[in-house]
């Protein structure tokens, strides 16, 4: 009888041990060492992600990572960000290694997904090499991300100087027909490209720039976006210069009711300041800066390079005030920046950062 009792106790002990081995713990330790429940540690389970999509080919991995870092740095609302990166073979591991490290540093605030390129069958090479390598991938997002309702697409040469939630609010301003938001290509007819040189239709008076693009994929699928894209490419491919951006301009020329126009501070480019200041910004300053045509890596307008280098040098997780904002102030104060045409907007560049970063650390 005693032997039977001992066997029964052993079976109970094994059952308890098996439970703890195979059951997932309902708690984790956060990055500060505090023990929290999994529901608390993973708040995105109850929140919809804000999707940021980018396409990276060629020598643009580092530029893309700096863009992602800027989005994470300015995410002071702690929205759940989901980065979707379309890239060519051989680059996925480089992204995965760095983004996994950053996710450990900034847990519970962002996630990422790396996807292969995919273009219409039978015409992959032509689409891949339309204008910049792979840039046309964004034209096919409605069919590639079928479970996503809305997203923000950005070029690799973009830096966020404000929270993602700021630009995301434009989705709520869409009327019942609008499915995308873009900024004007130019603000002045005297230096506009489309109104002077385009050999195809374009949106409005001066066209739109496609480097920063809010996309409601659900509405795009409903209007059969990709069928329109293929038809436009077939008809106009010998007359377009700027690839996917020209195709987008042609589409919204025929469907202007489907486009919402954002102010220029959400896609601020060298063209806005290199000759004269033509972006009439609100009091809030520059929100998203676009170093197109290589301006992040050139001394032609050193303001753009200074901002990029300050963001590139910042180590995510360190003190954003002393390690990003203070060096950025110093870089924008040197004579070569101050004396340049675009240097005159330095204060507009710093407005959001001073508020979001400077005030936060002053309150600590």
TrEMBL record:
Glycosyltransferase which elongates the O-linked glucose attached to EGF-like repeats in the extracellular domain of Notch proteins by catalyzing the addition of xylose. Keywords: Glycoprotein, Glycosyltransferase, Membrane, Signal, Signal-anchor, Transferase, Transmembrane, Transmembrane helix. It comes from Drosophila rhopaloa. This is UDP-D-xylose:beta-D-glucoside alpha-1,3-D-xylosyltransferase. Pfam families: Glyco_transf_8. One of its GO terms (biological process) is protein O-linked glycosylation via N-acetyl-galactosamine. Its EC number is 2.4.2.42. GO terms for cellular component: membrane. The keyword Nucleotide-binding does not apply. GO terms for molecular function: UDP-D-xylose:beta-D-glucoside alpha-1,3-D-xylosyltransferase activity. Residues 1-23 form the signal peptide. It is a single-pass type II membrane protein. Belongs to the glycosyltransferase 8 family. The gene is LOC108042939. InterPro entries: Glyco_trans_8 (IPR002495), Glycosyltransferase_8 (IPR051993), Nucleotide-diphossugar_trans (IPR029044). It is an enzyme of class 2 (transferase). It catalyses: 3-O-(beta-D-glucosyl)-L-seryl-[EGF-like domain protein] + UDP-alpha-D-xylose = 3-O-[alpha-D-xylosyl-(1->3)-beta-D-glucosyl]-L-seryl-[EGF-like domain protein] + UDP + H(+). The keyword Ribosomal protein does not apply. It is found in: Membrane.
């Amino acid at each position: 009888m005693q032997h039977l009792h001992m066997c029964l106790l052993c079976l109970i002990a094994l059952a308890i041990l098996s439970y703890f081995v195979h059951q997932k713990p309902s708690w984790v330790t956060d990055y500060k060492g505090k023990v929290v429940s999994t529901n608390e540690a993973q708040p995105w389970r109850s929140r919809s992600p804000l999707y940021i999509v980018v396409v990276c080919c060629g020598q643009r991995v580092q530029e893309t990572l700096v863009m992602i870092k800027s989005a994470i740095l300015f995410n002071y609302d702690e929205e759940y960000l989901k980065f979707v990166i379309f890239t060519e073979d051989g680059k996925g591991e480089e992204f995965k290694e760095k983004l996994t490290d950053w996710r450990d540093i900034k847990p519970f605030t962002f996630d990422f997904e790396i996807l292969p390129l995919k273009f219409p069958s039978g015409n992959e090479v032509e689409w891949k090499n339309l204008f910049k390598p792979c840039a046309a991938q964004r034209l096919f997002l409605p069919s590639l991300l079928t479970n996503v309702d809305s997203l923000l697409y950005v070029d690799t040469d973009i830096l966020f100087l404000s929270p993602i939630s700021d630009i995301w609010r434009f989705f709520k301003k869409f009327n019942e027909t609008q499915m995308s938001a873009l900024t004007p290509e130019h603000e002045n007819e005297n230096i506009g490209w489309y109104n002077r040189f385009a050999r195809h239709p374009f949106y409005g008076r001066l066209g739109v720039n496609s480097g920063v693009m809010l996309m409601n994929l659900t509405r795009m699928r409903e209007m059969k976006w990709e069928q329109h894209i293929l038809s436009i490419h077939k008809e106009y491919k010998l007359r377009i210069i700027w690839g996917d951006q020209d195709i987008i301009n042609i589409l919204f020329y025929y469907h202007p009711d489907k486009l919402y126009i954002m102010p220029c501070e959400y896609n601020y480019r060298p063209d806005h300041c290199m000759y004269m200041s033509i972006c009439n910004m609100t009091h809030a300053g520059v929100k998203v800066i676009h170093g197109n045509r290589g301006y992040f890596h050139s001394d032609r307008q050193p303001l753009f390079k200074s901002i990029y280098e300050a963001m590139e040098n910042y180590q995510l997780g360190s003190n954003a005030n002393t390690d990003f904002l203070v060096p950025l102030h110093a870089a924008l104060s040197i004579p070569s920046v101050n004396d340049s045409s675009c240097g005159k907007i330095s204060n507009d560049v710093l407005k959001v950062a001073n508020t979001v970063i400077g005030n936060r650390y002053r309150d600590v």
